[in-house]
Fold:
Amino acid sequence: MALIVHKYGGTSMGSTDRIRNVAKRVAKWARAGHQMVVVPSAMSGETNRLLALAKELAPAKETESYSRELDMLAATGEQASSALLAIALQAEGLESVSYAGWQVPIRTNSAYTKARIESIEDTKVRADLEAGRVVIVTGFQGLDELGNITTLGRGGSDTSAVAVAAAMKADECLIYTDVDGVYTTDPRVVPEARRLKTVSFEEMLEMASMGSKVLQIRSVEFAGKYRVKLRVLSSFTPWDIDINEEAASGTLITFEEDEHMEQAIVSGIAFSRDEAKISVLGVPDKPGIAYQILGAVADANIEVDVIIQNISKDGKTDFSFTVNRGDYAKTVDLLKEEVLPKLGAQEVVGDTKICKVSIVGIGMRSHVGVASKMFRVLSEEGINIQMISTSEIKTSVVIDEKYMELAVRALHKAFELEQAPA
Ligand code: ADP
Ligand code: ASP
Ligand code: MG
Structure:
């Protein structure tokens, strides 16, 4: 008997028929003798619907009081889907109980709309499992120190599931979604994309942080930190397929490099439209400039990604960086109001019509020329590179948003990702 955590995404929970299907699948696992904890997302479209209602009443604001209510609101989506799944399981003849994050409780910090999990109390869940119940725990949410409901950022149910699996020392965490695993790139953009049977933890971390939304990045971080056995697989297979076949399907995230059977140099291509570029022009070139600009941005809880400082001319330089598109307006305001006057810089300009495309692969460590091949492919397509950033196992470029799909397809082809490596 094993303790297994299943996570079902929004599309998988998208209708009562689909929830029934999930219940039948979970029942199959429970009847095979496993203790089951299930973490559902809200039904597809529900989180967007709720957040849009808030916007109808008042435009999105960065205030703590507004964000608190957004979390209070959005958390209801998962509360509803969890209760519906518990009801569907009971209809299948299983004992089942659902808990909202605050009931478990899953404790988080107070960073509303992007809270981080700090601890999970597992006593109640364990007692239910011992009593033979299937336990449903809402994805996406928790409780802060002051008793407020928090949410974990979009796509956060993945993180809830992996964190629950880590806290309970589950034998495996299975992420059921609307694709049958992790692909070389988003199969919706490149139909020739190939499913990876395994992907190393480090590659998955880069792919998630570079924009592959198949797993929320924090879920991958948790899996790495606590060595959670993690698999991504389809919720759209018939629920009654052989359980062993199901358990071996999809993509396994591996931790040992020698387990990494597919020795490709580039394993995948990630992309993100969710980016904006900001440049501070005419900055006096002296020590402390990067700190003055980026320190202020970091203090405002805004994450900065690619950074470029140009060489200076006449003692002045330009300083550019990217932020999440949602943080663009806030960052520009902050720079104009607080940083520019102190710096004596000339101007802040920005561009929200950019995207980031990244090639990822642990094989890049031991191969030179991978980045230059990427640059060549883009130049052959006439795509101008605005910024570049590299790490040991990835190269990212910032380009005009309108070339994103072209770039991804051209790179996928050039690196022959549609074929399994020899
Ligand atoms: P869920 O609702 O189950 O959490 P998501 O929409 O968050 O599902 O994530 C699954 C989606 O991620 C897929 O439908 C696919 O379009 C997208 N995706 C992006 N990159 C990849 C990739 N490399 N492999 C598989 N899917 C990817
Ligand atoms: N329902 C939340 C969202 O849409 C969390 C999730 O689905 O993982 O972002
Ligand atoms: Mg998701």
